[in-house]
User: Fold Galectin from Heterocephalus glaber.
Amino acid sequence: MSSCNIPYQVPYHASIPGGLFPSRVITVSGIVPPNAKRFSINLCTGSDIAFHLNPRFDGNILVRNTQIQGSWGSEERSLPFDMPFRQGYSFTVGIICEAHCYKVTLDGQHLLEYVHRLKNLPAINHLEVKGDIKLTKVTV
Assistant:
C-alpha cells in the first residue's frame, strides 16, 4: 500500500443510494490481518441486517445470517470446501443482488448463494463492515 493510500476507517458505514435491486453489485476489498478473529459485512435496512457475512477465524467457519427486530435467524454455515478467507491475505468480495438471493463471489470466483429473508430490496440501503479487517476499497 502506498503512502497516499489512506485505509478506510473500520467500522465502515456507507449508504446504498436507491437500495438494492436485481443486478446491483457491491464489492468489498480488504486485507485480513494475521491475528484476525472475525469480521462481518452487513447489508442493512433500518436496524435490521438483511445479509450478514461473517468469516470467523477463531472457529474456521463462514457464517451467513439475517437479523430482524434484534433476533438472529438460523445460521447458514455449510460450505463444500474449507474456510475460503485466510489470515494475512487480501480479498475481494462481490455481493450480487438477484431477485431471489444474493450471489457472493470471492476474488472473482462463485462462493455461495444466500436466499433473501428480507424481501423488500429497495429498503436495504446501508452497508456496514466491522471487525478485524483492513479495508482497501468499497464500491456500492
The chain has no helices and eleven strands. The chain has one domain: 12-139.
